[in-house]
Design goal:
With 46 residues, the protein is mostly helical. Helices cover 67% and strands 0% of the residues.
């Protein structure tokens, strides 16, 4: 039962960090060009 006292708050902190990371990635433009890199790897520039 003692493990519950630190497990629940630690999972809440990890969940909050994950949400903040997704918000940061969206605001910094990580999801702006979803198809560019997918097509760029297929085409050789040489």
């Amino acid at each position: 039962m003692d493990v519950i006292y630190w497990l629940i708050p630690s999972m809440l902190v990890v969940g909050l960090l994950a949400v903040l990371a997704i918000i940061w990635a969206a605001k910094s433009g990580q999801y702006d060009d979803m198809d560019g890199e997918a097509h760029r790897i297929l085409h050789d520039d040489d």
